[in-house]
Amino acid sequence: MRRTTADSRARAALLAAMIPLVVAGCGSSAADKAGGARTAKPKVLTLANGNGDARALEPFAAAVARLSGGTLRIAIKSRWRYGAPGFETGVIRDVRAGKADLGWAATRAFDDVGVGSFDALHAPLLIDSYPLERKALDGPLVPEMLGGLRKLGLAGLGILPGPLRKPLGISRLVRPQDYVGATLAFQRSQVAEQALHALGARGAAIPASGAIDSYDGVEQQIESIAGNQYDKVGSYLTANVNLWPRPVVLFANAKALVGLDGRQRAALRGAARASQAATLALLQADDREATAVLCRRGVQFVTARAADLAALRRAVQPVYDELERRAQTKAAIERIRALRADLRSSPDAPRCSGTAAEPGAPAVATPIDGVYRSDVTLEQLRRTRGYDSGENHRGNAGHFKLELRGGRFRVSGSSDGVDEEGTYSLKGGILRFAWNQEGSYAYRASLYRGALTLRKTGEGPTMFAVHPWRRQRGAASVGAPTPLDGVYVMTSTREEAVKASGEPNIDSENYGRYRFVMSRGRLRYTQSSEGASRWTTATYTVKGRVFTFTVTDFGGEAPNGAAEKTGEVYTFRWSRYRDRLTLAPVAGKISPENFRIRPWRRAGDAP
Q1: Could you read off the pLDDT of 449-496 as tens digits, one per residue?
Q2: At what angle do helices 58-67 and 262-274 cross, to 10 degrees?
Q3: Mapping DSSP to helix (H, G, I), strand (E, B) and coil, where does residue 533 land?
Q4: How far does CA 253 lie from the centroid of its chain?
Q5: Distance between terminal CA atoms of the chain?
Q6: In the list 77, 210, 239, 530, which could disulfide-bond 349, CB 3.0-4.6 Å?
Q7: Cα-flanking dihedrals φ and ψ of residue 374, to 5°?
C-alpha cells in the first residue's frame, strides 16, 4: 500500500504429517505420505548465529529447504560468540576458517575486516523507513555490495532487512545540541562511531544485550530496548529519528559450496530475496509489540521537527564526506536518496495511542465500520484512474483485507507481506486515511448493499480504488468488553511442542511466536516459525473461567496444512496473574496443546 505489508479430527488438523524444516537439532527426513521408504537425507549446512534468538533467520532457512526441493537443510547454531562486543567479526572469521558453513553479520561489521561495500546501507539518517529499506534491498545494489566479500574467501548469499535503530536517552535526543557531551552505548560500527562523534557525543561499544547503566543513552531497535529493559535507564525515545537500520548480510565459506549441486547453490542465493517479505513482517510485528510494552512502562515518545531532522543531517555531513570518497559507496548513497524521494515516505515513527493528536481520528464508530476484502493485481492497478508508475510495486497488489473500526484502520494481505495501519475519518462522504505521519489521503466513499466504493480525490494509493470492497457479513459487530481484552504474546520451541504433545514429530504451525489480539469478542492471532507465517480470525466468549473461540477465517503460509479451519471451536480454562495468562484444557472439549505450552504475556491494550 505504498506509492513508491472434535477430537482426533481437530488434532489431525493441528498435528498433520510433518515435512522436516529447518532449526538447529531437527531430525532426518521422514517417510513419504504413503508410508514408503525414506528419502535420502538432506545435506545439512551449519549457520553461525551470534544472537540467542534464531527467529529472524527462520524464513531464510525455510526458503532454502523449499527452493532446494528438500535436499538442503540449514542447522542454525545460536549464541555463537554470544556476549562478545565484536561477535559479528568473530562470526565472519569463523566462517572464513571453515568452523561454520554459513553465517550472518550486520553490514556495520564489515568495516572492521576491510570491506566497505555495505556502508551506504547504514549511513546515518539515510534509510529511515522499512519501505525504503525493502526497496533498497530489492534492486541492483545488493549484488554489487556482496562482491566485496570475495577477497575474504566468502560467498555472499544475500542481504535481509534489519530493524531500524533509534536513540534512547536519559534526556531528549532531538537536536544536535542534545548529543553534545553525552556518552551513548552502541554496537561496534565505525560509521556509527563517526556519526556520534560528529554530533558531539562519545560512543561506548557494548556487546549484544550489554548493560547501559553508566551511559546517557543507547542506539538500539525498539524490540531490543523493551527486551533488555533499557528504558530503566533512558526514558526518552526519539520516535522519528532512525539513525540507521541493521541489515543482515548472509554469507558462506566458499569451499562449503563446492559440494553442492546447481539447484542447491541457487537455493542458497535465492532464499534471502524470497524471505525478505516474511522477515520484514516479523520486524514490524516486533516493533508494534515492543512499542505497546514501552508505552505501558511510561517511556516518552518524543518527535523531532523537520528543522531538527535537517539540522541532524547537516551535523553528520562530515561522515558522508568520508564515505563518498569511495565511488561505489557514493553511487549507492545517491541511489538510495533517489529511492527515498520516489517513495515520498516519512521516517517510521511509532507512537503511543492517545499521546499525540492523530489526524482525523474520531472517537466513535462510523457508518462504514466493518471488514472488507478486495483482490487486486498489478495489471488491474495499472488500468485504474489515478495510477502512476511509482505504484508499480507488488506491495500494491494482493488479497487485501481492510478493517475499519471506530477511527482506526488496518490493511493486510499485500503480496510483500507488509501491513499498514493508522487512523481514518469520514465526513461529507469523504474518507481520509492517515498513517506513518505521511499526511492524509482522501477518497470519495459510498456504501451500497455491502460494497464500499472509493474514488481518489488527489494523491494516495490507487489500490484502494481498483474495485469496490466487499463487506464481510457480521464482521463489524462489536460486543461488550471482556476480562481478556488485550494483546498477548507467547513463544515456544519445537522441543517444547514435542514434549507437550507427546508426538515425536511436530509441524511448524504448532510452535513458534504467537500473538493474540482480543477485543470485545473478536480475536485475531498470528503464528510464525520456520516456513509458517499465518493468521487466524475468530469470535470468542468468556464465561466465568472458560474461554472459547470459533474460527471465522484463516490464511497465510501453513506449509504442512496444520492450520485451524473456519468453523472449528476451541475451549480453554483460563487464569491470569498480573501480565501472565495461562490456558488449561477443559474435559470433553478441544484444547490444543500448542496454545498451552507456556503462559502468555500481556503486551498491551488491543487497538
Answers
A1: 778 999 998 878 999 999 999 887 644 344 567 889 899 999 999 899
A2: 140
A3: strand
A4: 28
A5: 20
A6: 239
A7: -155, 130
Report H helices in 199-261: 222-227
Per-range mean pLDDT, top range of 205-209, 303-307, 318-322: 318-322
SS3 245: strand
> Locate cell 501453513: which residue?
558
Q: Which helix (H) or strand (E) holds 115?
A: none
Compute the distance between CA of residue 495 and CA of residue 506 in angstroms, rounded to an integer. Answer: 9
What CA–CA distance (Å, rounded) separates 182 from 203? 9
Residue 319, class by beta-carbon neighbours within 10 Å (0-12 exposed, 13-18 middle, 19+ buried)? buried
CA distance 59 to 378: 25
> Are the beta carbons of 247 and 106 closer than 8 angstroms?
yes
Whole-angstrom Cα distance, residue 37 to residue 32? 7
Cell of 350: 511509532
Give the angle 6-548-403 at the CA atoms, nearest 5°.
Answer: 110
Candidate from 17-31, 498-512, 513-527, 552-566 with smallest mean pLDDT: 17-31
Interval 172-186: pLDDT, tens: 999 999 999 999 999
Pick from 558, 537, 563, 562: nearest CA to 549: 537
Task: Extract the C-alpha cell encoding 382.
Answer: 495499472
Residues 6 or more apart from 306 whose CB is under 8 A from it? none
pTM summary value: 0.56
CB 339, CB 130: distance < 8 Å: no
Please give the Cα distance from 454 to 444 (Å, whole number).
Answer: 6
